[in-house]
Amino acid sequence: MSLARIVFLKKKLERKYGVIGKVAGRYVEAGYTVNVGFQTSKGHIDIVAKKEDQILAIDVITDSVKVGVDAVEKLKEKATAINAKPILVLYGAGPQLQEEALRKAEELGVEVKRVRG
Q1: Tens digit of each residue's pLDDT (9 = 90 or more) over 4-31
Q2: What residues make up the domain containing 108?
Q3: CA–CA dist 37, 47 (Å, integer)
C-alpha cells in the first residue's frame, strides 16, 4: 500500500470513528487490515486487525476510569472466540490500570498499551 493511501485511510478512520479510528489508523500504518466495531459471540470488540496469519483483538478505553480485572478477562474471552491475540489500549492520561488487573493481564497474555494523542 502506498504512503498516500495509508495517510488517506488514517484520516478517514479518524474522522469516522474518532479516538478508536485514530488507534486503528496506527495499525493500518503498521500494515494491518482493520475492521472497526467487530461483533463476536462473546461481545463487541473495538478493532480487529489482521496481517498475514496474525489476528489482533483490540479494545480501546478512553474514559477516565480505573480498569479492573473484569475488563481484562472479558477482552481475553472475546479474543479467544475469534482466535486472536488480545490487546488493551489505554488512550490518553485518563484510564488507569489497577495493579491486580496488570498482573491478570500478564497471566492471561493480554498486551496492554498506552497511546497518547
Answers
A1: 999 999 999 999 999 999 999 999 999 9
A2: 33-115
A3: 6
